[in-house]
Design brief:
This is ArpU family phage transcriptional regulator. It comes from Pseudogracilibacillus auburnensis. There is one protein chain. It is built from five helices and no strands. The chain is mainly alpha-helical. The protein has a domain of 97 residues: Arc Repressor Mutant, subunit A (Orthogonal Bundle), CATH 1.10.10. The chain is globular. About 7% of the residues have low confidence.
Length: 147
């Protein structure tokens, strides 16, 4: 007996979303927003500043922008880490070794290292992807089915 009130998941789109989230995690770890550096060149004006008592320098704007970007990046990284830490040991090991290490690793290298058969590896990985998709709220439902 299948529960009909549960929506049907689009497996390919959900898998793609999880892989993109894990790739974004890697990028976020490496990201350093150097393009938002303050100007160090002096600028001269002939007209006085407006009498609003507001002070906005490029250094202040850049500092505020860096804080926002850093906070968003830190929140995203923590969100991924918490989701991965909710997985069971085998699922977590596969995701970390395959996607979260700095080295590019292929699936066959991971399942050989862990001593899993290819079938067992892909079954555990698939289950881990679904759990991550739900934990991160990035699952995709098939069209025509309401959530």
């Amino acid at each position: 007996m299948q529960l009909t009130f549960l929506p049907e998941i689009d497996q390919d789109a959900t898998k793609k979303n999880v892989e993109e989230a894990l790739e974004k995690y890697q990028v976020m770890l490496l990201m350093d927003p150097e393009e938002h550096e303050p100007k160090v060149t002096a600028s001269f004006r002939l007209a006085p500043a407006a009498p609003t008592n507001e002070f906005h320098s490029t250094t202040e704007d850049v500092a505020l922008k860096k804080i926002d970007i850093t906070e968003k990046r830190r929140n995203y990284i923590n969100r991924i880490r918490k989701a991965v830490n909710r997985l069971n040991y085998q699922e977590r090991t596969i995701i970390i070794k395959r996607y979260l290490n700095r080295d590019d690793v292929y699936d066959y290298e991971v399942y050989n290292e862990l001593g899993f058969s290819e079938r067992k590896y892909y079954r555990i990985k698939s289950r881990a992807f679904y759990k991550l998709a739900f934990a991160l709220k990035i699952e995709v439902y098939k069209e025509g089915v309401k959530q």
